[in-house]
Specification:
One of its GO terms (biological process) is negative regulation of chaperone-mediated autophagy. By secondary structure, the protein is α+β, with helices and mostly antiparallel strands. The chain has a single domain, classed as Rossmann fold, CATH 3.40.50. The protein is 31% helix and 24% strand. It is built from five helices and four strands; from the N terminus they run ααβαβββαα. A four-stranded mixed sheet has the order 1-4-3-2, with helices on both faces. β3 and β4 form a beta hairpin. It is globular and about 45 Å long.
Length: 135
């Protein structure tokens, strides 16, 4: 896998939770509001902030409150978003709330590693975001 991804042999093996990274981490900002507001005020970017709704590391409620605190113009009230699962039809994949340049989205049943826990929902979410399609 490493060879296929062109990862040099001298690099260490990837760890999901690396103690050294955690030990050396230094917080630069007490709040991220000003950084997000700077990006949003430029009106150049669309931002997607997402959480698995069973993530025990970064809970979705705190991130939803954070997005709400940015006081952006709401375009779509909180509503379910759907994913098509083969012949079984569409199912609720989570909830989405959309503002002018930022969207907050949850993935039902996913933890901290959304693409690992819910690969189809993650792929659908990213595809819709990158292709500027509605969730």
């Amino acid at each position: 896998v490493r060879k296929a991804l062109h990862i040099p042999e001298q690099l260490p093996q990837w760890d999901m939770c690396n103690f050294l990274v955690n030990l050396q981490y230094r917080r630069l900002y007490r709040s991220m509001n000003s950084q997000y507001l700077k990006l949003l005020s430029s009106q150049k970017y669309q931002i997607l902030l997402y959480n698995g709704d069973v993530d025990m590391a970064c809970n979705f409620m705190g991130d939803e409150w954070f997005v709400d605190s940015l006081n952006q113009k709401m375009e779509v009230q909180r509503r379910p978003w759907l994913v098509k699962y083969g012949d079984s039809g569409e199912q609720i994949a989570g909830f989405v709330k959309e503002f002018s340049h930022i969207a907050f989205l949850t993935i039902k049943g996913a933890g901290h590693m959304v693409p690992t826990d819910k690969p189809l929902a993650a792929f659908t979410m990213f595809s819709r975001f990158l292709n500027k399609q509605p969730y």
